[in-house]
Specification:
Layout lengths: L1 H9 L2 H40 L4 H18 L1
Amino acid sequence: MLADSMWARMMEMPQIAIIMGSLIPIVGLIANFWYRAHKVQSENQLKRTLVERGMSADEIERVIAARTEDADARR
């Protein structure tokens, strides 16, 4: 009974707005972390593929630099 009244009081409009407002930056941080982790994983996979093809370190470096410049140009 007490839990029901506390839950109902907690879910009133001002409290919901505070909770939702707090979730926005948290979700943003999680999305940013996921994006960066995915980007690193993608670059590592590309490097592995290039090494398997027998490319030298200089060639791999040029491919990564070109990929980065291309991504910057798209922004």
